[in-house]
Predict the 3D structure of the following.
Amino acid sequence: MALFGKKNSKPSSGVMGKPKNLSFKLKTGVALVPIVSEKSTRLQQSGQYMFKALGVISKIEVKKAIESAYGVRVLGVNSLGLPGKVVRRGRQVGKRKARRHLIVRLAPGETIDTAKVL
């Protein structure tokens, strides 16, 4: 007697296939640019990639955009909000623009060609 529905007779391997929706478009005025630095190169060895977000975008939209553009499976997205620095040019005091970095974690065995810009 099944109270909550039938169980699948097919065994689950734990690794899901490629993403199904490969036609996700970013909003107008939003871009994801790969970051090439020592830290991002070190993260790539563990299957994590860094992107800079230009414009306002949520983690869910980032996940869909990366899966759509690169054809990989994203396990998670972490966001780093970096505040703008106060800078001086002589007596003039100003402030740099705040920026946002996104760390995207991929499924094991998948890679991204960072030469492609979204």
